[in-house]
Specification:
Blueprint: E1 17-21, E2 39-45, H1 49-59, E3 67-72, H2 77-90, E4 93-97, H3 103-116, E5 121-125, E6 129-131, H4 133-145, E7 149-156, E8 162-164, E9 167-170, E10 176-178, E11 190-193, E12 198-202, H5 203-209, H6 221-231, E13 235-246, H7 262-279, H8 282-290, H9 292-301, H10 312-323
Parallel strand pairs: 2-3, 2-5, 3-4, 7-13
Antiparallel strand pairs: 1-4, 5-12, 6-13, 7-8, 9-10, 9-11
Helix pairs in contact: 1-2, 5-6, 7-9, 7-10, 9-10
């Protein structure tokens, strides 16, 4: 691991970080007056430099005053080289990790660096997502006006359909439902949830909730983060006139089928129990545990039924996910 050359307060030269490359203008980067001064956009990458070039590269010229922080989880030497060259060409700060730390931990590393350089607002954005200048402005203005709010846009799929505009986690069943279905389930206890594909929050709220929980690695970490925002006294605010576009599944290998990866199945099944253990009461955890197989089977069905023609990987993930689930009851 190479030291990054920053003062000791930087806090990023620790296990899992290989190096931090920051352009000179990024060190205390408020060099121009801009509506985005103080905003850092943090993107966690894993083998997706082409998406960074297409999406973040198209955004970068329109966000004067913004610091772009790319956290590159280790994938391969070629991917690291491509990502280093891309970040250098655009003047983005690169945090090169020597392992794949997962999404939430990657977000924590990126936020740590951004805050050490003076960020006041943090936007977390997927490599396969993009947001326009005016929508980003609306999110930042809302976060500045409500420093204890986690602020998100409506997130659209490539065809313009709404992919996410706020979700509720049913604390009785563990099911996830979009906010527009609330009238059907009036009176049911829920926890609000924003997807980690795109949201903005102030440094005040980040410090209050403590960032992402490192225990999840992948999936459910944004559900957990949303819950911890609310536990810290924060709220979730949807800015409905702001939109981001998300190429759903864009980080999967080109030409892949509808079936999901074994990792996708495993962590979605296993982390459901992790969330329950961290946030639910003992009676609620018992109910979630009783429905664990039903929930796990529903997760497998997200990949379609054709995958069961070659069922080893999905069934292995099902077995391992249930085996490693611990509801604490």
């Amino acid at each position: 691991m190479e030291p990054c050359g920053r003062p000791a307060r930087c806090g990023v030269c620790r296990s899992g970080v290989s190096r931090v490359h920051a352009p000179r203008k990024a060190i205390g980067w408020r060099v121009s007056s801009s509506e985005f001064d103080g905003l850092a956009i943090v993107v966690v990458n894993f083998g997706s430099h082409a998406l960074l070039r297409e999406n973040l590269g198209s955004m970068s010229p329109h966000f004067a005053g913004t610091q772009f922080v790319v956290v590159d989880n280790w994938f391969s030497e070629e991917e690291r080289r491509e990502t280093e060259e891309l970040c250098a060409a655009h003047g983005w700060t690169l945090i090169g990790l020597d392992t794949n730390t997962g999404f939430g931990t990657g977000c924590n590393r990126g936020a740590e660096v951004a805050l050490s350089m003076g960020a006041q607002e943090l936007m977390f954005l997927n490599p396969d997502a993009v947001i326009d200048n005016s929508s980003a402005r609306a999110l930042v203005e809302a976060a500045r006006a409500q420093p204890m709010a986690l602020v998100a846009p409506r997130i659209l799929k490539r065809n313009g359909d709404v992919w996410s505009a706020g979700m509720d986690i049913d604390l009785v069943t563990g099911d996830a439902r979009p906010w527009h279905r609330r009238p059907e389930f009036n009176g049911i206890a829920t926890i609000e949830w924003f997807t980690g594909a795109c949201f903005v929050l102030s440094s005040t709220l980040w410090e209050a909730c403590g960032g992402f929980d490192d225990d999840y690695f992948l999936y459910w970490e944004d559900v957990d983060f949303s819950a911890r925002v609310q536990a810290a006294g924060g709220s979730l605010v949807l800015i409905s006139h702001a939109t981001a576009h998300h190429d759903v599944g864009g980080t999967q290998a080109p030409g892949s089928s509808a079936s999901k990866s074994e990792i996708y199945y495993y962590y979605n099944i296993r982390n459901r129990s992790l969330f329950a253990r961290k946030h639910l009461t003992a009676p609620q955890r018992k109910v979630w545990k009783a429905s664990a197989f039903r929930a796990a089977w529903a997760i497998l069905l997200r990949g379609g039924r054709r995958q069961f023609l070659r069922p080893v990987k999905p069934f292995r993930a099902l077995y391992r996910g249930l085996r490693d689930s611990d509801y604490g009851v």
